[in-house]
Amino acid sequence: MRRMPVESASADRGARAERPPVKLSDAGEQVLGLYAAQLRRRALIVAALLALALAGLLLDMTTGPSGLPLAETWAALIGAPEASRGAQVIVWHVRLPVALMAILVGVALSLAGAEMQTILDNPLASPFTLGVSAAAAFGASLSIVLGLSLPFLPPGLTIAGNAFLFAFGSVLLLQAMARRSEEGPTVLVLFGIALVFTFNALLALVQFLGSAESLQELAFWSMGSLARANWAAIGILTAVIVLTLPFSMASAWRMTALRLGWERAASYGIDVARLRFYSLLRSSLLAATAVAFVGTIGFVGLVGPHIARMLIGEDHRFFLPASALTGAVVMSFASIASKLLVTGAVLPVGIVTSIVGLPLFFFLIMRRRRT
Amino acid sequence: MTELGLALTVEDISVGYPGRPVVERLTLAPLQPGSVTAIVGPNAVGKSTLLRGLAGLLPMTGSIRLGRTELAGADRTLRARHVGFMPQTLPTGARLSALEAAIAALSVNPMDAVGAARSAVRRRAMEVLERLGIGALALEPLVALSGGQRQLVGLAQAIVRNPSVLLLDEPTSALDLRHQVRVMQVVRSLAEEGVIVVTVLHDLALAARWADRLVVLCNGALVADGDPRAVLTPRLLAEVYGVAARVELCSAGRLQVIVDGLDAIGSA
Q1: Contact B66/A at CB under 8 A
Q2: Helix (H) and strand (E) counts for chain A?
Q3: Residue A5 and residue B68: Cβ atoms within 8 Å?
Q4: Mutating which of B4, B95, B103, B168 best tests the A interface, going by the most A Cβ atoms within 10 A?
Q5: Chain A CB within 8 Å of residue B161 CB
């Protein structure tokens, strides 16, 4: 460990890089073996979550009012000649878009929640609690009730466009407020809560002005439903996930280090403000896009990361994909439950996630207390 | 000490928050490799602020040079290669193990010299944990560790990147006597390897026992700087801390500070 005399600071680095291989005690070698096994187990858990999400996708496609069995669903999906025309229409135009959208929305909301919880150092942070959903609902209300929307959007996308605009704008507002404050992430969460109340008040104002029909439509939108899923929405949400996920994964180590405190992370050379900014940008894009297409869906962004954290810890190389996949599993099974809970009717999935999510969340908190 | 590296020069630095300078225009004699310097002083006089300024965590002006390399205003990855910083506390909420915490410290920047092979990173992390005597706790989650053990993990994270300058903010604050000695022994041995150690300490006896040099701050300004035996005097303790105290050598020949009470000014 003794250092060599050096000429300059950079030469010192070179000297240190060539240190002889590290000698560890037998116990130390054993610990590293256990650590490697731990990493393999985590990779397995991620793989298992992926398998579970795929199972959910398939199961989701076989459930529905028309009761298509698995074999027939599969035949229709791969375009086998024995599949009836009706089955093909049901699978390709109704079931597959809904099932895919469930997976994608789960991935987007839960990944967004995971990143928000890490960078804001707050286990209660999620797209829902930071006001993204409330802002989206207000944006949608402007379009549904007052007919206000962006001029260049096709008619099918006006509500989603407005919802996205407000959801994304609310996070930018949050960022701007955070920059003006010296307090850091704590105050960001408080700003988020203030935004929830502000947008809820504005939404109430719009509702007060609205007609009975428009209020009904707005109420249905706010409940969060996968029935609005279509291929354009699936394409856009997939693109957003595919574009943001690599950046999330690339900052996995920095986020892991950030869990040890911002000062420590900064002392490792991490630009913490920049890390927070881009992470919040990614999570707001993900959450705003998801919410714009399916409406308010609570608890997935909150519960998904919590379950992932319990399964896998906070090494973000595993925590981020595990959160995304946990969200997908939760959403997919919520989608299945939404079709099975009331015979003959499909409940809005937002209601299911809230009803199932709340007790689950309480259970998790109580369990955590005990440990 | 025969093998010496580069000295740290701190010149005319001011550190603080926007519109609220805490340390103003402070210059220190060069901090030599192999030395342990303790920053002492009453509460809220800018000890931690000075340390954070040296670590590049707060806005500052002035010059901090390691040899000829300017660290003030330098690129953060460059500074992070030379300077290790240990904050007072380690967060309790993170679901990470001690080993993961040390590995994370080595893995944040793929361009780091130490970020070489994966196995080399893991071995280096484990080596540091063993050195601090917490190898057996490597896979324990941080939440399950005691305050003292967490402090040692925090120290491991600060030294795992092999810094030339090690900045410690109250490294013994949460520790019992045994752990205090353990931590200060490690700090001493790091200094013997040529590291420049600067540590904020509240405990003057601990500072006198383990540091080569005391930097005494009061209201953001330098009051005294030098060998503990020269610096610690009843007069200084009265002026800076407002206490009536004796400074005596114990039977082992070590400096002891015995506080008798508040001095006339302090109790007035």
Answers
A1: yes
A2: 16, 0
A3: no
A4: B95
A5: yes
Read off the tokens for B97: 């193990």
Say if the Cβ atoms of A5 and B4 lie within 8 Å.
Answer: yes
- The per-residue DSSP string of A293-328 comes to HH----SHHHHHHHHHHHHH-S-HHHHHHHHHHHHH
**Cβ contact B116–A253 (<8 Å):** no
Q: Of A172, A155, A49, nearest to A107 (Cα)?
A: A49
> Number of helices and strands (H, E) in chain B?
10, 12
Does B126 sit within 8 Å of A24, measured CB to CB? yes
Q: Coil, strand, or helix at residue B168?
A: strand
CA–CA separation, A302 vs A92, rounded Å? 31
Tell me the ipTM for this assembly. Answer: 0.90
Using the Cβ of B17 and the Cβ atoms of chain A, whether some distance falls under 8 Å is answered with yes
Nearest 5°: phi and psi at B166?
-115, 120
Residues B221 and B262 in one domain: no
Residue contact A268–B161, C-beta within 8 A? yes
- Tokens (6 digits) for A41: 């187990």
Query: Which residues in chain B (162-181) have CB-CB distances under 8 A to chain A?
Result: 162, 164
Please check whether residues B51 and B169 belong to one and the same domain. Answer: yes
For chain A, say whether B84 makes contact (Cβ under 8 Å).
yes
Q: Do A266 and B57 touch (CB under 8 A)?
A: yes
The structural domain count of chain B equals 2
Residues B140, B254 within the same domain: no
CATH number of A71-370: 1.10.3470.10
Q: Under a CB-based contact definition with an 8 Å cutoff, are residues B104 and A253 in contact?
A: yes
Query: Global pTM?
Result: 0.89
pLDDT tens per residue, chain A (371 residues)? Answer: 444 444 344 444 444 444 566 788 899 999 999 999 999 999 999 999 999 999 999 999 888 877 777 788 888 888 888 888 888 888 888 889 999 999 999 999 999 999 999 998 888 888 888 888 899 889 989 988 888 877 777 777 788 888 899 988 998 888 887 777 666 677 888 888 899 999 999 999 998 888 888 888 888 888 888 888 889 999 999 999 999 999 999 999 999 999 999 999 999 999 998 998 899 889 989 998 998 889 888 889 988 999 999 999 999 999 999 999 999 999 999 999 988 888 778 888 888 888 877 787 777 677 765 55
